[in-house]
Design a protein that fits this description.
- Helices cover 33% and strands 26% of the residues.
- It is of the alpha/beta class and 231 residues long.
- It has a six-stranded mixed β-sheet with strand order 6-7-8-3-9-10, sandwiched between helices. A four-stranded antiparallel β-sheet has the order 2-1-4-5, with helices on one face.
- The longest helix is centred in the C-terminal third of the chain and has 17 residues.
- The chain starts with a strand and ends with a helix.
Length: 231
């Protein structure tokens, strides 16, 4: 389980997170929702180790990790797919996937066969440069690269952004399948309400750097949540 407790995060003098708490459990999807600029990405960056926290606690499997560097957290099984995907545009699809080997022991440095079962289009494009893929294909590649690391915590920042509807459905299916395998926790930031609603086992709604609503996905009140995510 991921446990984030009373986390404060600052960028200089500007406070981005205010006493934020949430959890993400193995075999479940925790969806973080809210308007742009309310701290959702800052929360993910704090969990991944890309931004230090000022106060609070971040624990993974009972171990405090808030003082660990990003590569140390990755070796503990934490994989982060950032907003914008951040694939290597000049590397081939295969080379992008192999960058996920960095945190693995040498004996485990192979691409799991189920990667191409989840994303069959990638197997057809192994020699193509990442920058030549469509936005939806790049998003699939970014998620696949994270899965090569064999994570126990998968962090996804707005995986539907700029993606055509057919691929959004594919990504939703993959996330649900990964959840149902019961081998990883998934922490998902999403603005597309229907996508988040259909996947959420737990939900967290943020506003102005703080958590304003949280609970089980089955208890989510659509009208209330939509008020906090409407632009």
């Amino acid at each position: 389980m991921l446990e984030v407790e009373n986390v404060d995060l600052f960028y200089g003098a500007s406070q981005a997170l205010r006493a934020v708490s949430c959890i993400a459990e193995i075999g479940a999807v925790t969806c973080v929702m809210g308007r742009n600029g309310v701290g959702k990405t800052s929360l993910l960056r704090a969990v991944a180790g890309q931004q230090p926290i000022r106060r609070g606690s971040i624990r993974w499997a009972g171990t405090e990790i808030s003082g660990l560097a990003p590569h140390q957290r990755a070796r503990l099984g934490i994989a982060y797919v950032p907003q914008g995907r951040d694939i290597f545009s000049q590397l081939s699809v295969l080379e992008n996937l192999k960058t996920g080997f960095a945190v693995l022991p040498r004996r485990e440095r192979r691409i799991p066969a189920d990667i191409f079962e989840l994303f069959p289009v990638l197997q057809q494009m192994l020699g193509r440069r990442g920058g030549d893929l469509s936005g939806g294909q790049q998003q699939q590649l970014a998620i696949a690269r994270a899965l090569v690391m064999r994570p126990q915590l998968l962090i996804l920042d707005e995986p539907t952004e700029g993606i055509q509807p057919s691929i959004i459905k594919d990504i939703q299916r993959v996330i649900a399948l990964l959840r149902d395998r019961g081998e990883m926790a998934i922490l998902l930031v999403e603005q597309y309400f229907e996508f988040a609603r259909d996947l959420a086992d737990r939900y967290v709604v943020m506003d102005r750097g703080a958590v304003v609503l949280a609970g089980a996905g089955s208890d989510m009140e659509e009208e209330v949540v939509r008020r906090y995510i409407a632009v």
